[in-house]
Design brief:
Strand order of the largest sheet: 2-3-1-4
Shape: elongated
Helix content: 55-70%
Order of helices and strands: HHHHHHHHHHHEHEEHE
Mean pLDDT: 81
Distance between the termini: 30 Å
Number of helices: 13
Number of strands: 4
Largest sheet: 4 strands, antiparallel
Low-confidence stretches: 1-16
Strand content: 5-15%
Length: 324
């Protein structure tokens, strides 16, 4: 546990910072793989249109089917998603670099390169691996969201509407979430006007109903991946706040500080019944470190009074970057 903590949570040591940076870039590169897998094995075979740039590129793929047989024979003459993803992101990154700044774009460039690569090397299946469209939308969206959440946790991005949101937010005081939500609504709603895939036409019935059904698939997929991102980010940001009451406060504080490598605050208090001064240790740690802290306390003072509270997120030195 301690070795893992030192690997993923360095405390301003230059060598550990480099290790963390390499680790995060690897997470960005390989964390995008499940996302691309769901697109090429579920979304495209089902002809779904989800949110974000992936939805735009998917719509272009469906509309251009059979138009360019000599250029893209392996994609049935359709403009492939990997190509439109790369072109759109390159344009958006150029605009973002000139407006927001190139520092923001570095990790996004890595994410864009990774997702373009995975889209290119993963074959598009003729039949989806999840046959039922509702299950495909929900499960595919959830895996897509977990993948995206891992990339976001590594301070990365897969590009697309993330870049649009940053550019708009740079000039207008509009929240990133509202910008991305507006983009998703427009993109998913556009599925209503796209030609129906053969799989849906084979079902028969009113074409308007089928178009609405197709839009609802996109909504279900988007809700699913949003829930997955929020769930994963909440899990990763969970921390624990300890309040420790013990006469051996100095030993406990030193042990936590040196063994767990966490900052410790010792507060002055007064026992109201005894009217005697007491020392209270306050310490914040990540959830995986809590068992180690508790074992240290029990080893030094089995009779210590310990209060443990879950914390939704801790931002600052040694934890997560400030969201502001």
């Amino acid at each position: 546990m301690l070795r893992f903590h030192r690997f993923v949570n360095p405390h301003n040591a230059p060598s550990q910072s480099r290790v963390r940076m390499v680790f995060e870039y690897l997470v960005i590169i390989f964390g995008i793989f499940p996302m691309a897998l769901m697109v090429n094995w579920v979304l495209l075979p089902h002809a779904f249109v989800g949110g974000g740039l992936t939805g735009i590129c998917s719509a272009i793929y469906y509309v251009t089917g059979g138009l360019f047989p000599s250029l893209f024979p392996e994609y049935g003459g359709a403009v492939p998603v990997w190509l439109t993803t790369f072109v759109f992101n390159a344009i958006l990154l150029l605009i973002a670099g000139l407006t927001v700044g190139w520092r923001f774009c570095i990790r996004t460039m890595v994410g864009v390169a990774a997702i373009t690569f995975w889209y290119r090397v993963i074959p598009i299946l003729p039949e989806p691996i999840i046959e039922d469209p509702w299950l495909g939308a929900i499960i595919g969206g959830f895996v897509f969201g977990l993948s995206l959440g891992a990339v976001l946790a590594a301070n990365g991005s897969s590009g697309g509407t993330d870049i649009v949101a940053m550019i708009v937010n740079h000039y207008r005081n509009i929240s990133l979430g509202n910008i991305m939500l507006a983009c998703d609504i427009v993109i998913i709603a556009s599925a209503f006007f796209l030609p129906l895939p053969e799989s849906m036409l084979a079902e028969g019935g009113n074409p308007v109903y089928l178009q609405i059904k197709r839009v609802l698939y996109g909504v279900a997929m988007t809700i699913s991946y949003t829930v997955a991102v929020d769930w994963l980010m909440a899990r990763l940001h969970r921390s624990v706040h300890f309040l420790i009451y013990s006469s051996k406060y100095d030993e406990i504080a030193t042990a936590i500080n040196t063994t767990v490598n966490r900052g410790v605050t010792v507060l002055d208090g007064t026992g109201w019944y005894s009217q005697k001064p007491v020392k209270v240790i306050s310490v914040l740690v990540r959830k995986p470190e809590s068992s180690l802290v508790f074992s240290l306390i029990h080893e030094i003072d089995p009779n210590a009074l310990v209060s443990i509270a879950d914390v939704g997120g801790v931002f600052g030195s040694g934890f997560f970057p400030s969201p502001m």
